[in-house]
């Protein structure tokens, strides 16, 4: 049996369709990555799974029980880490976790051990008596996660848990997610960092405009664009005339400019480099690095949505 089964989920707000008849499952013991551009319907989907929103139509089952009819079925088993920090800044880390322990009705005799365990998971035992408003952004994110783990959930939803934090905190969170998963926890994970998805997710589901447009493992999704080559071309300055001419080339299927580089998707084995260098010379675009790359998950996302995940 799957942990979560969603059947034809549909959500409208004032006749505006946000999620459009999507069906999927979350398997026991897996980390499922949920990706999509802004406005794709990710947060609405998460809110429906967590029983925070009722779907306009459709059904959600948690271990065979209806989440809509019996929301307490999932609420007692769920740890939810929202995008926004949900902590009391004037309280200490310990006081925040004591509050959440009471919310989850953890017996008084078990609270101390549960709180210590949650602080250990996120590496904040030594800061238990520090106020949250003294914490860095990364520490607040980690304590936010601790509050979702305090009751020992079986299923964890993490909605962009690493936004705006330092690399050390990000690595700590990713390692923690992998460790929790090894112990049997199922995880639904959203992020704008593709390297996180590649590092921890067993399967990936891509949403766009309320529809599921792709689903599978990293390897299965990359198979979708094996008919293309991918060229990374670093330039000193972006030039819209050069860009327009590149798109006119028959072999070029997609162009994206990311930081200081053009990312081109071109037809497999097309001899496009001579034309690229000819146009660069014509428009005086200095190319200081060019590389034909193996397709990556980021290329799949770009191919399917027309946008880079990081730009979202």
Automatic annotation (TrEMBL):
* Keyword line: ATP-binding, Nucleotide-binding
Alphabetically, the GO molecular function entries are: ATP binding
Origin superkingdom:
Bacteria
The UniProt record lists the keyword Flavoprotein: no
List the Gene3D superfamilies hit by this protein, alphabetically. Answer: P-loop containing nucleotide triphosphate hydrolases
Using the record's annotation, list all stretches that form the ABC transporter domain.
Answer: 4-234
State the InterPro entries in the record.
AAA+_ATPase, ABC_transporter-like_ATP-bd, ABC_transporter-like_CS, P-loop_NTPase
Pfam entry (one):
ABC_tran
Official protein name in the record: ABC transporter ATP-binding protein
Source lineage: Bacteria, Bacillati, Bacillota, Bacilli, Bacillales
């Amino acid at each position: 049996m799957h942990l979560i089964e969603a059947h034809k989920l549909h959500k409208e707000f004032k006749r505006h369709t946000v999620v459009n008849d999507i069906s999927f499952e979350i398997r026991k013991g897996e980390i499922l990555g949920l990706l999509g551009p802004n406005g794709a319907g990710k947060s609405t989907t998460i809110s429906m799974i967590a029983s925070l929103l009722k779907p306009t139509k459709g059904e959600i089952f948690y271990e065979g029980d209806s989440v809509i009819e019996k929301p307490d079925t999932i609420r007692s088993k769920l740890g939810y880490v929202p995008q926004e920090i949900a902590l009391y800044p004037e309280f200490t880390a310990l006081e925040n976790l004591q509050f959440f322990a009471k919310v989850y009705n953890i017996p008084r005799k078990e609270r101390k051990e549960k709180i210590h365990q949650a602080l250990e998971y996120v590496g904040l035992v030594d800061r238990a008596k520090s106020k949250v408003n003294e914490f860095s952004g990364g520490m607040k994110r980690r304590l936010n996660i601790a509050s979702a783990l305090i009751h020992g959930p079986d299923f964890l939803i993490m909605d962009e848990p690493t936004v705006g934090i330092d690399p050390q905190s990000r690595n700590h969170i990713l390692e923690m997610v992998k460790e929790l998963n090894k112990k049997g926890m199922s995880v639904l994970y959203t992020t704008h960092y593709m390297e996180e998805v590649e590092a921890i997710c067993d399967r990936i589901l891509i949403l766009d405009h309320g529809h599921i447009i792709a689903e599978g493992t990293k390897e299965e999704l990359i198979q979708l664009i094996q008919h293309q080559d991918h060229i990374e071309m670093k330039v000193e300055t972006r030039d819209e005339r050069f860009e327009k001419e590149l798109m006119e080339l028959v072999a070029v299927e997609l162009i994206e400019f990311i930081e200081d580089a053009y990312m081109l998707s071109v037809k497999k084995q097309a001899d496009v480099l001579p034309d690229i260098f000819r146009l660069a010379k014509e428009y005086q675009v200095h190319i200081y690095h060019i590389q034909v790359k193996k397709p990556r998950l980021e290329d799949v996302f770009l191919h399917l949505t027309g946008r880079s995940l990081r730009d979202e």
